[in-house]
Design a protein that fits this description.
single chain, about 170 residues
C-alpha cells in the first residue's frame, strides 16, 4: 500500500513533475511571477486610505496600581497602631500606658513606611519629588520640609507620651 494524501474526489488525477516536459498551461513563469494580471483579479487587502483609519491603541500590560489585597494589611496595621497610641492617651492606663502608646506609635510608623514602599513600587511619589528612575535629583527644600514635618510629629508624640509618665 502506498503512503500519501487521500484523494476523495472521484475524477482527480495526480500529476507528476517532469522537469523536461512542457508546462501544463502552456506558458512559463518569469522568476518574479506572472508578467500580466488576468482579467477579474484584484489586489488583496484594504486600500491605502482604509489602512490608516481609526486606530485604537491598547496597553497590553495591566495598569500599575495598588490592589485591595495589598492595601488591606497596611490599613489594618495602621489602624491598630493608631488605636494603641490613642487609647492610653485618652484614658488612664497607669504606668503601662506610656509603653502601650509608644508601641502603638511604632506599629503605626511601620505601617506608614510599608505603605510608602508599596506605593513607590507601583510608581507613586510624594508631591515635589521626582519619579523613580527618572534620573532627576530631588530638591533639597522639599526634602527639608518633609524631614521637618516628620520630626515635628515625632517630637509631639514623644512629648505627649512623656506627659503620661509625669
Amino acid at each position: 500500500m502506498e503512503a500519501g494524501p487521500r484523494d476523495t474526489a472521484p475524477s482527480t488525477e495526480h500529476g507528476t513533475a517532469d522537469p523536461g516536459g512542457p508546462e501544463p498551461d502552456g506558458g512559463a513563469l518569469s522568476p518574479d511571477g506572472p508578467d500580466e494580471t488576468p482579467e477579474g483579479v484584484a489586489a488583496d487587502g484594504p486600500a491605502p486610505d482604509e489602512m490608516y483609519g481609526d486606530e485604537v491603541e491598547v496597553e497590553l500590560r495591566p495598569q500599575r496600581r495598588l490592589r485591595i489585597w495589598q492595601l488591606a494589611p497596611i490599613v489594618c496595621l495602621a489602624a491598630l497602631g493608631s488605636l494603641m497610641f490613642a487609647f492610653p492617651l485618652a484614658f488612664d492606663f497607669g504606668d503601662s500606658g506610656a509603653v502601650i502608646a509608644m508601641l502603638g506609635l511604632l506599629i503605626c510608623s511601620c505601617a506608614a513606611g510599608w505603605g510608602m514602599m508599596a506605593a513607590r513600587r507601583v510608581g507613586y511619589t510624594w508631591p515635589g519629588l521626582p519619579q523613580r528612575g527618572s534620573g532627576r535629583r530631588a530638591d533639597w527644600r522639599t526634602i527639608l520640609v518633609y524631614a521637618l514635618a516628620v520630626a515635628a510629629v515625632v517630637v509631639l508624640a514623644v512629648w505627649r507620651v512623656a506627659r503620661l509618665r509625669g
